[in-house]
Amino acid sequence: MKPSDLVLTPTHLRFLGRRFPCARGRCGLTKAKREGDGATPRGVHRVVGMLYRPDRVAPPANWAVPIGPSDLWSDDPGHEDYNQMVRAPYPHGHERLRRADPLYDLVLITDWNWPRAVRGHGSAIFVHQWRKPRHPTEGCVALRRDHLHWIAERLTPGARLVVR
After folding, report:
1. DSSP letters spanning 42-75
2. Is 129 helix (H, G, I), strand (E, B) or coil?
3. Exposure pattern of 123-146 as b/e (b: 16+ CB <10 Å)?
4. Per-residue pLDDT of the chain (164 residues; tens, 9 = 90+)
5. Comparing C-alpha atoms, which of 29, 26, 20, 34 is closest to residue 129?
6. I need a labelling partner for 36 at 20 to 30 A (CA). Which of 66, 73, 81, 112 fits?
């Protein structure tokens, strides 16, 4: 492993020699990820994108893409856009990226089940801000706001999230 890898351990996320408290899926880790199971998928995942809310935060890196009011993420395993960013109006199952709460003010997108998604094998596995300290996620990795921003400012496209 390299210092530039994001490495998830039972108690924290390690990056560039620092340790950051974090949260992970409410049902722990899994090798057999399924949509809605609440688990964080094990494996080595590349960071393939960074999104941010331009009305709330400055772009943390030159490769970050702003989240617009109609940006969504498809979580409908029955649809061809499953585990892809889509735009409203979108009549199929989805998650709003521009949320009322701050969870998705800054989002690192992983390549879990992407770009050619296997339907039902999980979607929207992100690194994002936590709801409250160590509060479990639906399968993502979540961090304190300032820690997430510190990481995002130093992260390069293609960096790896290692979940053992």
Report:
1. PEEEEEEEEEE-TTTS--SSTT-EEPPTTEEEE-
2. strand
3. bbbbbbbbeeeeebbbbbbbbbee
4. 888 999 999 989 999 999 999 999 999 999 999 999 999 999 999 999 999 999 999 999 999 999 999 999 999 999 999 999 999 999 999 999 999 999 999 999 999 999 999 999 999 999 999 999 999 999 999 999 999 999 999 999 989 999 99
5. 20
6. 66
Tokens of 113: 């089940």
User: 49: which 2 tokens?
Assistant: 């994108």
Give me the count of residues in the chain: 164
Q: Which two tokens stand for residue 31?
A: 């090798």
